[in-house]
Amino acid sequence: xxxLAESGGGLVQPGGSLRLACxxxxxxxxxxxxxxxxxxxxxGGQRELVASITSAGSxxxxxxxxxxxxxxxxxxxxxxxxQMNSLEPEDxxxxxxxxxxxxxxxxxxxxxx
Length: 113
Known about the structure:
There is one protein chain. It is built from one helix and eleven strands. The longest helix is centred in the first third of the chain and has 4 residues, at 28-31. 32% of the residues are buried. By secondary structure, it is mostly beta strands.
């Protein structure tokens, strides 16, 4: 099973931006056909989807991040990203990347003044 690792989390003020990255040990032939996704989870809350991207590049976002978050992928480097703009305190959570049956360990995003 592939391993995933997130990076790029941190503390940011409301209205600020962060870019998360996910790297994977999956081989290219496994990575490229996969739908990739980012989820987030708050303490005591359920893990919720925030963005996904198919192998063809089609993206999907729930309404609460639409227009603010952008998911992208780099198949040549086996990485995918989450650009988060106009961050709000409600976006504070641990963010996880997901591929197939694999999950990263998460990266903390805190939006606070």
